[in-house]
Design goal:
Elements lengths: L3 E11 L2 E7 L5 E4 L6 H9 L24 E9 L2 E9 L6 E4 L2 E2 L2 H7 L2 E4 L11 H15 L3 H20 L5 H33 L9 E6 L9 H7 L1 H7 L10 E6 L4 E2 L5 H23 L4 E4 L8 H14 L3 E5 L13 E8 L2 E7 L1
Parallel strand pairs: 3-13, 3-14, 8-12, 12-13
Antiparallel strand pairs: 1-2, 1-4, 4-5, 5-6, 6-7, 9-10, 10-11, 14-15
Helix pairs in contact: 3-5, 4-5, 4-7, 5-6, 5-8, 8-9
């Protein structure tokens, strides 16, 4: 039995779900059904029980069921370290998302203290071939699972860089306007870089010697600066003229990139086949889950959307075995029940269908 898992989940007017109620026992959860039926919406709802904007990074208004637009609500009963916690996340028209824990208002960051949550969605299949921004978001999401304080450092840095960029675009030349912002960026940027590098090292240790059917990914953080060892505040001060010409800040951890190598073949991830790229991502998710379990003693939740895509039957069965060995409540989606045959009674299975314009979740025996 996982140390951390969702016991109950209720959705109200969330995306395609007018009303949904799931009773769960800690086993992995397989959701199957036709595309567009509302499977991913369940995973997105769960992702909003963690800090941030969820796996689709959607605005609150986008999450409201149409045509009612009454607002949406997610309720979950979380079992964590032997105790139950009532979690709620909701938004009404014109209002920002709010969070409650055990009936009391709470900041989003408090969710990260109760439950560690990792996800893998089809859009991330292109992670190694697209721009660096998505890879930074990927490593920062992993970092947040290990160190919830990473969110505060990231928010501080992003706020400071937005203000600095505004000064640059307005052609402000008075150094006094920049100094405090650049000190904030240097302090929070150092924390961001330190955490990212720590996570890369931690994932490497979690992959070493692990019994897994998935390839090892050798990771590194490539700094975006020509002189990465220089104090960031000094680098920013010296680069103001260059940045002003560009209209944006050209130095700092927001320019870094996550690099990956398929270790066994010594091939950069972006040169691997589609299947190999998917396998590398799954390998990192499993490594992160192992590391979190070792470091915190608590099993993280895994959200694996269309996880069977690009996996052959052998590797798919191996994935399920590893999930069950970890003892994590993994939530997986797929188009057909046959994709989850190898799980058998080790998982709870639900069919998600569209009926009368709304998603319906049917438990399967």
């Amino acid at each position: 039995m996982p140390t951390t898992y969702i016991r109950q989940l209720r959705l109200s007017h969330f995306r395609s779900h007018k009303a949904a109620h799931l009773e769960l026992d800690g086993r992995p959860v397989a959701l199957y059904g036709a595309n567009g039926g509302g499977k991913t919406n369940v995973l997105e709802a769960l992702s909003l029980l963690s800090p941030g904007r969820g796996l689709r990074r959607a605005d609150g208004a986008e999450l409201m069921r149409r045509p009612e637009t009454l607002g949406w609500r997610i309720d979950a009963l979380l079992r964590a370290e032997g105790q139950d916690h009532a979690l709620a996340s909701r938004a009404t028209p014109g209002q920002n998302r709010t969070v409650e824990i055990d009936g009391k208002p709470a900041p989003q960051t408090a969710l990260g203290q109760l439950m560690r949550l990792l996800w893998l969605v089809p859009a991330m299949d292109r992670l190694w071939t697209e721009g660096a921004a998505e890879r930074r978001r990927f490593i920062d999401r992993l970092a947040l699972s290990f160190n919830p304080a990473h969110a505060e450092a990231t928010l501080t840095y992003e706020k400071a860089i937005r203000e600095r960029n505004r000064l640059l675009k307005d052609q402000v030349r008075d150094a006094a306007w920049y100094e405090a912002l650049e000190q904030q960026m240097a302090q929070s940027g150092a924390a961001i870089s330190q955490t990212r590098n720590w996570v890369v090292g931690r994932l490497a240790r979690a992959q070493d010697g692990a019994a897994t059917a998935f390839p090892v990914a050798a990771l590194a953080i490539a700094p975006g600066d020509d002189t990465p060892d220089e104090d960031l505040a000094k680098l920013l001060a010296r680069g103001r003229s260059r940045d002003m010409a560009a209209g944006r800040t050209l130095s700092g951890p927001h320019r870094a990139d996550l690099q990956a190598i398929y270790a066994e073949k010594s091939i950069a991830a972006h040169l691997c086949s589609t299947g190999e790229q998917k396998a590398l991502l799954i390998s990192l998710m499993l490594a992160a889950a192992r590391a979190l379990l070792e470091d915190t003693g608590a099993t993280p939740l895994l959200l694996l959307d269309e996880v069977a895509a690009h996996l052959d039957a052998t590797r798919r069965a191996a994935l399920y075995d590893e999930i069950c060995t970890l003892g994590t409540q993994a939530w997986m989606t797929g188009t057909g029940a046959e994709l989850f045959t190898d799980l058998g009674a080790r998982a709870m299975q639900f069919e998600v269908v569209e009926r009368d314009g709304a998603s319906v979740i049917n438990p399967q025996s």
